[in-house]
Structure formats: structure tokens, C-alpha cells
What we know:
Layout: E1 5-12, E2 15-23, H1 28-39, E3 47-50, E4 53-54, E5 71-75, H2 97-103, H3 117-126, H4 130-137, H5 148-165, H6 173-182, H7 200-214, H8 225-230, E6 232-240, E7 249-255, E8 258-260, H9 269-277, E9 278-285, E10 290-302, E11 306-311, E12 314-317, E13 322-325, E14 335-337, H10 344-377, H11 387-402, H12 405-409, E15 418-428, E16 436-442, E17 448-453, E18 456-461, H13 462-466, E19 476-484, H14 493-500
Parallel strand pairs: 1-5, 8-11
Antiparallel strand pairs: 1-2, 3-4, 3-5, 6-7, 6-10, 9-10, 11-19, 12-13, 14-15, 15-16, 15-19, 16-17, 17-18
Helix pairs in contact: 3-7, 5-6, 10-11
Amino acid sequence: MSAATIKVNIKWGKEKYKDIEVDLEGTGSDLKVLVYSLTAVATERQKIIIKGKTLQDDALLSQFGLKEGQDIMVMGSVGGPPKAPEKQIVFAEDMNEATLNKAMDIPIGLTNLGNTCYMNATLQCLRVVPELVGDLQKYNGGTNNLDAGSNMTASLRDLYKELNGAGYSVTPFVFLNYLRRAFPQFSQQARDGSWMQQDAEECWSQLISTLKAKLPPHVEGKENVVAQFMQGEFTTTLKCDEAPEEEAIVTKEPLLKVDCHISNEVNYLHNGILESLDQKIEKNSPTLGRSAVYSKTQRISRLPSYLTVNFVRFFWKVDEGVKTKILRKVAFPHELDALQFCTPELQAKMANTKSKIRDLDSAETALKRRKRLDKETGRMETDEISDEQKAVDQARLALQESLDPELVQDVGSNPSGQYELAAVLTHIGRSADSGHYIGWTRKTGTDEWYKYDDDKVTAVTKDQIMRLEGGGDSHIAYLALYRAKSFTDGKAENDQKAESSQT
């Protein structure tokens, strides 16, 4: 027996194990293993008392001043056989579609009824607008009206309600029927009688226009949800290049989407948008009495909470009579600063807020660095608020106070000009009227996304979304839906709204 080993007595209930060798250089965990070998009491069920003190797993036995023949008391009982699980274990391969979707928190898809992916992708993308889904559920109209648009609105309400409660993929036959009645162009058939593919952007635009016309006011005395949350305003200026003395024409126009032109010089979304906002057109000049060239300049004078961007990838090829696709790679950001697209007046209202956003970004970066270092060094979390967290809270408060009061009161607008990507609609193929459409929406509170390939829905990562920028024959972004960022707390308020629309 070495100098670091002594013999002790282990007392467990009525049992006493004498002259048990114990290594003083061991720990409480080591002693518990020894006790287990004697008593069959599992280590996690043991309580060992030495000199009136409870032995901890990481405590060194040498600290207790143990002597030869000393009694050590053990408390604990031998556990019975393992209990059967309260719920029977079901493996993934044994689950049906509904059970598997629920277990994996996967949303429900829509059945393709014959080249209807354009419609399915559109409907899934629009579900990320909780205000729209909520107001649809309040819509009281039925599907027996003479007006096709009202019937389509009511059937969309019922379809979204079914998607929220279904366990299996939903067949949107009723909605498709009313969509085709409202817009006969979606009823085109090939010579063999099969349904022809349609343009998802056209479906998106027609659907939004109908909902804008049919849904009641979002709040009493206000506009409806589309006009309030999804529609902004353009300020358009026309100036005659050939008659500088001619007075400029300034008008206000509704904004339901922003175009991203794709020329040989466009590599990024913001370049394509700016190119679409500045154009040359020909119109009759009252000063010159003939057709003349005008500079048409558009700038956004109201930013909506949800901003739709249309990648103008298709143009009409006269000789072939088809919409031909531009495959050029155009990178789009996960977070979009829209101030550069706004009027000088709106930019001025948001200028102070933009500097406060930079301050918040710096403070949040410092907090993330602090948390990472704490994790690497093993520092324990405490209830005390760190200086970095205080700096984030102060920066967030300063940002809130910097928002222009007039913009804040305009419910449904974006007072900061900052957006985050919420949904993307993609197309694969060489023509808008062929190929295949897929919807992609951001998963609530994370950087993971859902891919809606008709009735097949899968979880994907943010990196996969960023690879939808084009440059080849794979899926390319055609429509992007951005939502206003919220700076009320660390977790975007928008995420909570989006979650409520899918529950």
C-alpha cells in the first residue's frame, strides 16, 4: 500500500465494507466509482458524507484529512430497471408525411396542378407578410360573388387558413380556379391540352393589385394592408434635354415594386435599381412642338415596410415570339440600405438615423466579441450586465430616438431605410413561360430558410440563398421581398410577426 493510499470503512445503510483501499490523490468521482463497485448504487444517485461534509465530484480526497480506519457514510439506493419511455419512440422512416413535417417543424407545400409552380412559389413568398395574412383572415367575403376578384380574395383566405392547419401538402385547386377566372391569361393551354407555364412576376403583380382593391382598410379610416405596408411612393421628374428652359414636370406615383435592370454594367442589385431609376424617354415637347428626348428621374419618397424588387431578366424576342432570359450574375444583399434610392428630402430625414445604426452595429460587434472571448476562456455567466451590453442598449435607445417622428407615425412605412431579405422567388430555364419556379422564405429568428418546391419543402441555409444570384442555368433570383428591419431589441420584431402568420 503506497503512502497515498489508506484503508477506510464504507457504511451504506446496514452494510459496512471494511478495510477498503482509497487513493488520497483521487477525486470524489473516483470514490463514487469505487462505491458503485461495492454497492451497485449508480454514481449519480450517491451522496457521500465525510466529516459532516458532502463530497463533491471534483473535490480532492486529500483535502479531507482522512485517517486509517475512518468511516465514510454513503447514502443512496440502487435504482430499479430503466423505465420505458412515456411516449413510444417513432423513427423517421416510420412516420407519414404529416407526422414528419410536424416533428421537423417543416411548413406545408402546395401541389403542382400542371405547370402551376409560378403560382405556388408566389403564394408561399407572400406568406412572410403577417399583416397581409392577418387581414385576409378578417376578410368576410365569400366565393359566390359575380366579381371574380372578390372570389379569388376569399379563396386565398381559405387556402392560407388550410396551409396553417394542414399536415399534408395542400391542393390549391379552388384558388387556381378563381385565379383563372379573374385572369384568363393563366388559363392558356398547349395544343395537347396541357396547361402552359406562366410568368410568376405577372401572377405576383395581378394578385397584389387585386388584394389592394378588395381588402378592407387595415385600421379604421386608413388604407388597406397592401397600400399601407407594401406600397411606397415614387417622385418622378421629367426634364426636357433639348429645351432646358422648359419647366420640369414633377409627379407622384404609387410604388408596388422596384425594378432592377440588368445591363452589361450591372453586377450588383443596387446598380441595377439605380439604372432603372434614371432613364431617357421620348415624348412630345410643348415648347418645341415635336417629340423630344427627356430625362426621367425617379426617387422614392415613401419606403414601405415590405419592398418588392423585380430582377428584369426577361425581354421579348420579336423574331422568336418568346420572353428570353438574361442569365447575368447579379449579387443581392441579405441586408439592403435603400437610402440611395430615395429623394433628398427623405434622405435628410433618415441621415441621423443612419449614423446611429452604425453606432449600434459597432456596439453589437463588440458584444459578440465579448461573448466569444467569455466562451473561449470559460468565464461563467452572471446576472451582472456587461459594459458591452449596456453600450448596445444605449445605442439602440439612441437609434429609436433618432427616427423622424413623422415617419414613425406613418404606420406601414420604413422609417430607417434599412431592410432584410425575407423571401426570394427563383426561376430555372431560358424563358419566363417555361422552366420551373421555386419560392424561398427565411425561417423565423434564424439564418436558415425554407425552400418551397411545390409540395416538397426543405430547410436550407443562408449561403444557399446567396448562391441564387445567377450566372448559369441553375435557379436565379427573379423576385426578392425585403422587409423593414426592426431595432427595438436584439431579435427582430419582424421575426415574431412572421411566426404568427404561420401558426
